[in-house]
Amino acid sequence: MKRCPAARTSRRLTVLRLPKYPSCRTKAPNSIDFVEPSGFFVALDRTRDLLRGRETRNFSDCDVMTQSDRMIKIFDTTLRDGEQSPGASMNMAEKLEIAQALAELGVDIIEAGFPIASPGDFESVRQIAQSVRGVTICGLARCADKDIDRAWEALKSAPQARIHIFLATSAIHREFKLRMTTDEIVERAVAGVKRGASYCDDIEFSPEDACRTEHDFLCRVVEAAIDAGATTINIPDTVGYATPSEVFERITMLRNRVPNIDKAIISTHCHDDLGLAVANSLAAVHAGAGQIECTINGIGERAGNAALEEVVMALRTRQDFYHCTTRIETKRLVPTSRLLTKTTGLVVQRNKAIVGRNAFAHESGIHQDGMLKERTTYEIMVPEDVGVSKTDLVLGKHSGRAALADRARALGYTLSGEQLQQAFEQFKLLANKKKELYDGDIIALVQQEISGGSNREWTLVDYEVTSARNKTPHVRLTLKRGDTEKTETVEQGDGPIDAAFWAVERITGIEVVCKDFQVRSATLGRDAIGEVTVEIEHKGRSYRGIGASTDSVESTILAMLNAVNRIIAEKAYAETA
Ligand code: KIV
Ligand code: ZN
Question: What Å distances lie between residue 397 and 291, 392, 404, 550, CA to CA?
Fold first, then answer.
């Protein structure tokens, strides 16, 4: 017995999930009337879990028995649903890097892509399956033989592989998209799952648009899919239409009505069209779901998917309520979020829960005063637990390579020898310009090294800016391609940034239209690193780039080169594919 940790609210009835409570095996209680001599009641709750507890006026007075938390699987779909969001496309090297980071974060399943969608998708799933270890690698397939075969072809080298098969079930999809009857849907679902199961044991089936599917039909499809061999049943809110209570009721309904539901794990996959994806996912878990599908920073189709960092921290911070846990190494949440931002250029808003820059900032005097007296007055999570360091000043120009490696490791980055060497050279240059280097500076610098190194074709050698009132600004720019060629040009523009754009275009020969340009500071202070994000269009496609420096013209050039190098990498891939 231990004291209840959440001694806050006054509750008349305190219940406790205790699924394996032995005395209930012989006499299955279904109402609260079953009361033990000790005063504890036992009951079945609405989700058919056994509950044990006792009536009390005050929660804090209640002794509860130690209970085991349910382990919730985290299924990350950043590289599949996330990558479908506009502006989030990644090249092969970037996908591999994100997959590795996800494995280190501790996700249970990585949905690496949709192999039949394109040769590039196939190849990235294949490479991730071949090289990323310690996690299940999953590939998406429509419920069709050629899709399932292709998915397996890409996945087969993974020690733990999963095929995720989906088929729409709602009336609206059946009628207008598939033009299929309910019988035909069930038949196709069974055939697809059986085909998948002939390749591997781990088969997930998703009745697409499940949250708008008639209850009776949903139960019928789910039961048939499980009988055919599905081991996970995912219930997607494909259009982000459901509310938390509806999700709770739907999962409860499935648990109550589908006779073989215990043979599969129930999963949730919520879209954020109404801003409810995280709340809906948590409602599903509360109703008994054992897997959450989510993405880093909540990226995904349209308004995105449930944000991984938010569901994980909600389960952890409110463990007293959900009685669930995950395998996520929460200290890697912020570094992983930053890596994704760096890779895709999709910046999270400042006030974004968990990973936004303001998530742990206290501005008002009353809050700051409370925090100084007792941190928990206004802080429900410890920032360090999600990878936000409280150490402000970290390094200066006298710091050595080992100190940089140490700090980078504390911030979540393990650098290879070559990466460390490159990062250290940049660090020395920066430390000469800027006396004090903060965590934000180190992160910007290290990420530039990690994500720039693999695909960079054009690199910056030197630049010089001439700008004065009433004079046309000029930029003299020298770039090199690979290890050899160096090219110099001098261009003018409406401002130095415009001139820098022209200069990059002139040397690389890649013509672009600038669609978006943003500057933000990586740390505080006048000498802060300025991070520039550009979105450029080339031949009708969008590319993003990020660059960081204390000089915004240099950040712009680096961001442009980052985007231009993506164009070059994509062209090179298209030529070899
Ligand atoms: O949103 C959705 O329905 C999906 C399915 C493929 C699971 O992404
Ligand atoms: Zn989706």
Answer: 47, 16, 11, 15
Indicate if the pLDDT at residue 266 is higher than 80.
Answer: yes
Q: pLDDT tens digit string along 132-159? A: 999 999 999 999 999 999 999 999 999 9
Beta pairing partners, 162: 138
Alpha carbon distance 337, 447 (integer Å): 12
Domain 459-576, CATH among 3.40.1160.10, 3.30.160.270, 3.10.620.30, 1.10.3470.10: 3.30.160.270
**Relative to the alpha carbon of 208, which ligand is closest?**
1
The pLDDT of 403-411, averaged and rounded, is 81
Contact 530, 551 (CB under 8 A): yes
Q: Which of 55-69, 299-313, 514-528 has the lowest mean pLDDT?
A: 55-69
pLDDT band at 23 (very low <50, low <70, confident <90, very high): very low
Q: What is the pLDDT of residue 64?
A: 34
The DSSP code sequence of 232-249 is EEEEEETTS---HHHHHH
- Identify the DSSP state of 449: H
Closest CA to 290 of 67, 73, 16, 68: 73
Confidence band of 288 (pLDDT split at 50, 70, 90): very high
Question: Bridge partners of 137?
Answer: 110, 161
Token couple for 482: 């690979």
* Amino acid in the structure at residue 468: A
- For residue 166, the ligand closest to its alpha carbon is 1
- 486 sits in which H/E element: strand 485-492
| pLDDT tens digits, one per residue of 546-556 | 888 888 899 99
pLDDT of residue 154: 98
* 327-367 pLDDT, tens digit each: 999 999 999 998 998 888 888 998 999 999 888 877 677 77
What is the CATH architecture of 70-344?
Alpha-Beta Barrel (3.20)
Residue spans per domain, the chain: 1-67, 70-344, 401-452, 459-576
**Alpha-carbon distances, residue 559 vs 90, 350, 441, 506, 509 (angstroms):** 16, 21, 16, 16, 16
Residue in 269, 295, 302 to alter for ligand 1 test, most ligand atoms within 8 A of Cβ: 269
State residue 186 phi and psi, 5-degree precision. -60, -45
Query: Within 13 A of 443's CA, how many CA atoms are on the CB side?
Result: 25
pLDDT value at 409 more than 70: yes
Which residue has a Cα nearest atom 5 of ligand 1?
208
Measured from CB, residues less than 6 Å from any atom of ligand 1 are 81, 166, 206, 208, 234, 236, 238, 269, 271
